[in-house]
Amino acid sequence: MINEESQRVRELLREIKYPGFSRDIIASGFVGDILAIGPMVEVEFKPDTRDETKVATMERQIRDVLQRANFADVQIRRIAPFVPEVPLRSAEDLAKELRKKPEGPSATMSRLMTPLQAEYLEEGELPEPDLLAIALGRHDVAPAAGYRPGGPNPLSGPRESIDYDIGIPVLQWDIDPHDPQAKTSQHEIKVGDWDYRVWWQAHRDSGLLYVSMQAMKEDWVDHDNNAVPHPIGRSEAVNLVYDERRNAVVAIYGTVRDFRPFVKAFGLAHDSETGAQGGPATQEAEQQ
Description:
By secondary structure, the protein is of the alpha+beta class.
């Protein structure tokens, strides 16, 4: 649980901008755990940039901000994705390496390349090398997680036969997006800077709505020391189960930082579907 002093440090760090961007380092996700005890503070710093000058600038600003706030001992613990042991190479360096290598499909296929790098290459631009791929080697091999050169290890655990029947129904298994007889709804909702796509299907006799949501937002990336629009942007996904009889969300799951904006977006979509006015989601939207 985050104590008040650690939370105060996190708010102080919002003053520091990611160089070249309007976002601060907290909003950019560069700050992890914070431990603050008396005059000592330790900050987990994970900048997602290949530019060591920018990293050094942000670290210097972190120290300045916290020392002004009377923290005498400021420790910064830098972790991945920035890996200082791997040399930082520019697009020009990569071009020199490519000229030294033999041409042909075999040479191209042997290089580790992310989808974003491939897009740059197709547009005639030389992408910067992926820092983590260089540090970790093959991106499809992770022995500790069960992914080896021959493929992933088979999943362990008990398994049932095809004729699964133990008397306990699993309502979620009745949901079929391709069922033409099922009652489904789809809406697009905007809340703040995020665009939400909301889809749900009503279970045939339980009063439950199984909801799938995706939030999308334009994002920017650091390319050649310049802030440019990301070709894909940011995307977050959440699923929830809504009980119409109790007017309540009974389950919600995903990997997002905060579920509340998704609940708000679903409430607005559901209100527009049912024609309800004056509900919590509608009132909150009208106040903004």
